[in-house]
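Q: Please design a sequence for this.
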């Protein structure tokens, strides 16, 4: 007996940028997509994400940079390189 073919995935494309709704935040203008996402795809992005991305709060960006300062990279031969270049 032949295996059943899976149903095709239904993709919701943004009416503003044309990307799949899950990828709007990586698109050219997430700010313009937000009203459309709230109206047509409320489950894709939690309200907290949509609201916080427009706040302009850069505290988390600094924290990431601080954490990266302590990262070291080891090569195949066992030598390590610490910090950012």
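A: Design:
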């Amino acid at each position: 007996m032949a295996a059943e073919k899976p149903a095709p995935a239904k993709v919701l494309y943004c009416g503003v940028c044309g990307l799949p709704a899950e990828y709007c935040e990586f698109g050219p203008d997430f700010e313009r997509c937000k009203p459309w996402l709230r109206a047509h795809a409320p489950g894709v992005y939690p309200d907290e994400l949509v609201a916080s991305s427009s706040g302009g709060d850069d505290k988390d960006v600094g924290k990431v940079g601080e954490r990266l300062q302590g990262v070291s990279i080891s090569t195949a031969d066992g030598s390590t390189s610490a910090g950012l270049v």
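Q: Thanks. Anything notable?
A: Residues 13-57 form one domain. The helical segments are 30-40, 47-52, 59-69.
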